[in-house]
Automatic annotation (TrEMBL):
Keyword hit for rRNA processing: no
GO cellular component: plasma membrane
Pfam families found in the cross-reference section: CbiM (PF01891)
Name of the protein: Putative metal transport protein HI_1621
Example of a GO biological process term: transition metal ion transport
Biological source species: Maridesulfovibrio hydrothermalis AM13 = DSM 14728
Length: 202
């Protein structure tokens, strides 16, 4: 979800920038030579998947794939998403440079949170891998939507109505992302399981 420039207040922009800066630093420290290809690949997929926008007030609905990125990259999702958003802002004027911190934090923070919430469940007996991956994809979008709504609400109370619309508008995206995450994770588990092991956070 891309929040447009000129919408958010300076304190919200500063908070988003600080979170993104911290997350990106941690993420870069966790990227080694083996993970670099995965980060570049998923950043490219994110860049393409989130180009198709459905406007919702000062924001928009689109595929994010943050749940899948969180499962596979952990903290490295921050630099991966930041890179994709930076290219979109420069090449297509999506979002913008002043809000890139908030937009990155809104998408990357839930990705990291879902990594720690759902990644351990996927290896536990009795837990369906596809079910765990589905909820990871869906919950990551739900958390991103809530963070986006909070960013709008903390900027101005008049945005509360738009914030609610943002949440309702992303419910179908949550379901779609859940199925995509489950399908992609299951496919990788069959054809390239070493990629899942390589990206496991310690």
């Amino acid at each position: 979800m891309h929040i447009s420039e000129g919408v958010l207040s300076i304190p919200v922009l500063a908070t988003g920038a600080a979170i993104t800066a911290a997350g990106t630093i941690v993420g870069l420290k966790k990227i080694d030579s083996e993970k670099l290809i995965s980060v570049a690949l998923l950043s490219s997929v994110f860049f393409v998947a989130s180009l198709i926008h459905i406007p919702i007030g000062p924001s928009s609905a689109h595929l994010i794939l943050s749940g899948l990125m969180g499962l596979l990259l952990g903290w490295a999702a921050f630099p991966a998403i930041l890179t994709g958003l930076l290219l979109q802002a420069i090449l297509f004027q999506f979002g913008g440079l002043t809000v890139i911190g908030v937009n990155t934090a809104v998408m990357a923070l839930p990705a990291v949170a879902c990594h720690y919430m759902f990644r351990p469940l996927l290896s536990r007996p009795g837990i369906s891998m596809s079910t765990g991956a589905f909820f990871c994809g869906a919950v990551s979008i739900a958390l991103s939507t809530i963070l986006g709504a909070l960013a709008l609400s903390f900027t101005d109370e008049s945005f509360i109505g738009v914030a609610k619309l943002l949440i309702y508008g992303h419910i179908p995206i949550m379901i779609i992302e859940g199925f995509i995450c489950a399908s992609a994770y299951g496919f990788l588990h069959k054809v390239k399981p070493e990629m899942l092991l390589m990206t496991q956070e310690t």
